Amino acid sequence: MENNNRRNFLKKSSSAAAGLMAIPMFQNNDLGHYKTEKVVATKQANYENPRLRFSVIGMNHGHIYSQVEAVKKGGGQLVSYFAKEANLIADFAKRYPEAKLVKDEKEILEDKTIQLVLSSAIASERAPLGIRVMKSGKDFMSDKPGITTLEQLAEVRSVQKATGRIYSIMYSERFENRATVKAGELVKSGAIGNVIQTIGLGPHRMNTKTRPEWFFDRDLFGGIITDIGSHQFDQYLYFTGSKQADIIASQIGNVHHPEFPKFEDFGDVMLRGDGGMGYIRVDWFTPDGLKTWGDGRLTILGTEGFIEIRKNIDIGGREGGSHLFLTDNKETKYFDCTAQNLPYGSLLVDDILNRTETAMTQEHCFFATELALKAQKNAQRIKLSK
């Protein structure tokens, strides 16, 4: 009797296992459909005459070039620039011969015809510069991180409120990535229902031989969560719509680069807000076998589907970056986003001229930074035994 029961149990178990093995084939063949859609570019304004004049002060990170291009596409005219480093000046002058090199930043701040100043100075110097810019009656656009301490943030908020100027931080992983811009349109249209969670991954390649000294000093670059993680906090707030959020846990560490004792090569954060949850991981461990600086990813989970963005590369084989995949209750769709418009520069110029907040609200800009700074400050330090 016992042997018969055992044989029946094994027979039923084998049948159940065979059924489970068949489920993925059934789902792939009968339930899901796969489509590809090419995003069609919308007509963008072509400005025959400049809409505003702008300048650059500080260009210690190469992001300054995408900052300049964004404003130029929005109708801005680059008229002058200042930097302390001769090699950076030479590269910038070659790229923008139409602009004038001035002898010091004072010449730019005192020029009443200049409405906007851009900067990718050493990270810890950006907020003090932005304060000087706003006090001079001009708007300011900083590379990320735009602020590196909570003390700086408090002062920037105070001056911004007092002057009424715009302090914008170019969170380029959203503003300069076509798939992320498209994802914003899809989420807004309700394509995946209500957003529940975002997962933002920001891996980077070290390139130690090409990095300046300040890049390895936490006091100057702000820490890994402040620096790289600011992108992910911006996207978390944008896609979940959270107006309030708390850091549940954060951790940072230098787990593989002891030659740079003030550097951090890994960090992650878990957070919860009134609009959804979030997880963030940032690191400096992109291997040399990848043909771009990092396999940046963003997953947006909704009640009716999910979106995955492969920002810089699709290791599955598609060329280029800005890849977007959307899966809902009907199908899985791949979006070719190469023609997606990038509106940040034009919207920022609009905001400067009209005193509006269409590119990004000031509250959002500062809150994303605040969350990054708090996560950085309160992070537990990782110590691995291997």
TrEMBL record:
Would the keyword Oxidoreductase turn up in this protein's UniProt record? yes
- Annotated GFO/IDH/MocA-like oxidoreductase domain ranges read 182-308
Tell me which UniProt keywords the record has, alphabetically: Oxidoreductase
Known InterPro entries for this protein? Gfo/Idh/MocA_oxidrdct_glycsds, GFO_IDH_MocA-like_dom, NAD(P)-bd_dom_sf, TAT_signal_bac_arc
Transmembrane annotation, as ranges: none
Q: Which PANTHER family match?
A: BCDNA.GH03377
Designated name of the protein = GFO/IDH/MocA-like oxidoreductase domain-containing protein
